[in-house]
Amino acid sequence: MTATTLLEQVTSAEGHKVHDPATGELIGHSPAASAADLDDAVARALRAQPSWAAAGHSRRQAALHAAADAIEAHAEELAQLLSREQGKPLNGPNARFEVGACVAWLRTAASIPVEPEVLLDDESGYAELHYRPLGVVGAIGPWNWPMMISIWQIAPSLRMGNTVVVKPSEYTPLSVLALVKVLNSTLPADVLIAVPGDGSLGKQLTEHGDIAKIMFTGSVTTGKAIIKTAADTMKRMTMELGGNDAGIVLEDADPQAIAEDLFWGAFINTGQTCAALKRLYVPDAIYDEVCQALTEVAAKMPMGIGLEEQNVLGPLQNAKQRDIVARLVDAARDSGARVLLGGDPDAGAPGFFYPTTLVADIDPQNPLVTEEQFGPALPIVRYSDLEQAIEWANGLEVGLGSSVWSSDPERATEVASRLQAGTTWINKHGAIDPRVPFGGAKQSGFGLEFGLQGLKEVAQPHVIQR
Ligand code: NAD
To answer: Cα(200)–Cα(187) distance, rounded to whole angstroms?
Structure first.
């Protein structure tokens, strides 16, 4: 498979038009699955599931490693397609990094041992806990990290003996169709089936009586709709939803030392990342130094067309998201906040670019702070009382990630323990690891992904007791 033929294999003569978000160029058409196609996919996945479960852990582990080998063999083709469709550059923590992460998450899901747990073994009796397959898992994903997030859903589900029907985002269907094509070059027939379509197809998947579990990653609003729809069939669910991650810098932090990690914490994937740093709280004592160090780092980072090797920041994936970022920054400026960098998009240029933007001296209740911007614009809020900063950080209904920045690890850990989030990083932000569980607090969702806990989430616990 060359880059062209992989793209050709997943595009159709007509259907949903997919454009390059950096240039506006037509990449191809995505096929759209009908309601009948979805029913057929679920029926095939249901038929394939018993023999996949019967294959046992060791054969499934080998199959996941073989699938990871197939991704490695097509890594560059996949990265180029991802870059063209999603917009993210090849370099930096972007397209090649995302394809590499698919391999890492597959191999880790394949490698973690899952054993029955002995719960009780004494004169009163014996009890052990097994983790059985659930059946068919429905996976629904977003457009920001389309390949990596699909793998987060697919890899643990397959490892635990489930089969999977995956519905990619309508904004980035080709990336996921190409990934599934490569995975299916080694997997048995029908254990993994992709059904491209929009939210109505996603809804059909969440209503389907033969889907045992929904793995969903996307917005809080859609997550809530899915929970309601899936109630009738009592589906298991993992909900990885939106966030608005706070970072708190402590007075003893070294502005120069943290500036680059702060930058990437906020601007990874041009800010289109669930657990990116989306609001930064900085104490008066070092406010100007942090703003200056961050501005110097940010101003040096090249933004442009993803396929051009020098770029590390790209366009927004779609016009809707670009307009959300523009609206929030304009409103912040109008409210009197100080724009340190960016905030001045070139209206006539092709693509959905929005410049790297830093906004200082902003009111803590400004919408750029309290709403999820999901793009390259970071508000930097000044504080003089740490208790107040912690209160602001915890003051929203979401709680995916958060971070504390300090030269004193013990003090940072103490502050971290008071933040309401699924993960709190110290002196970094968003640094996920396939061995370490990840999930949201509050309205950022429920259920864990990654590690042994992530495998257990796609299994039915079954106690055998005598
Ligand atoms: P979205 O909720 O608009 O769409 C996500 C998916 O849901 C798409 O595939 C869409 O077609 C589908 N969908 C829409 N309506 C549906 C319905 N009624 N039933 C079933 N499926 C439906 O989200 P998005 O804009 O694609 O993604 C951005 C959001 O995702 C951001 O809020 C971001 O923070 C969040 N996100 C969270 C994580 C995480 O791990 N927590 C990771 C990435 C993105």
So the answer is: 28
Query: So which residues are the catalytic ones?
Result: 240, 274
Burial 331-344, CB ≥16 within 10 A → b, else e: ebbeeebebbbbbe
Residue whose CA is closest, atom 34 of ligand 1? 242
Beta carbons within 10 angstroms of residue 188's beta carbon: 15
For residue range 337-386, what is the model confidence (pLDDT) as tens digits? 999 999 999 988 899 999 999 999 999 999 999 999 999 999 999 999 99
Type of residue found at 239: M
Look up residue 128 and give its amino acid: E
Q: How far is CA 251 from the centre of its chain?
A: 31
- Residue 241 CB-half CA count within 13 A: 24
CA dist 289 and 322 (Å) reads 29
Tell me the C-alpha distance between 35 and 33, whole Å.
7
Residue count of the chain, please give it. Answer: 466
> Distance between CA atoms of 349 and 52, rounded to whole angstroms?
50
pLDDT of residue 347: 85
- Strands 236-240 and 16-19, how do they pair? unpaired
Question: What kind and span of H or E run contains 248?
Answer: strand 245-249
> Residues 6 or more apart from 40 whose CB is under 8 A from it?
none
Strand partners, 460: 132
CA distances from 307 to 21, 147, 148, 281 (A): 12, 17, 19, 35
Q: Tell me the β-bridge partners of 215.
A: 139, 238
Q: Which residues of the chain have pLDDT under 50?
A: 2-3
Rounded Cα distance, 53 and 50, in Å:
5
pLDDT at position 5, please? 79
Phi then psi dihedrals of residue 372, to 5 deg: -80, 110
Would you list the DSSP string of 108-174? HHHHS----EEEEEETTEEEEEEEEE-SEEEEE--SSSHHHHHHHHHHHHHHTT-EEEEE--TTSHH
Distance CA 282, CA 258 (A): 12
The whole-number pLDDT of residue 4 equals: 62
CA 116 from chain centre, in angstroms, equals: 30
Cα three-residue angle 92-94-96, rounded to 5 degrees:
90
Q: How far apart are CA 347 and CA 344, in angstroms?
A: 9
Ligand 1 centre distance from Cα of residue 219 (Å): 4
451 CA from centroid of ligand 1 (Å): 23
Mutate which of 145, 217, 433 to test ligand 1's pocket (most atoms within 8 Å of Cβ)? 217
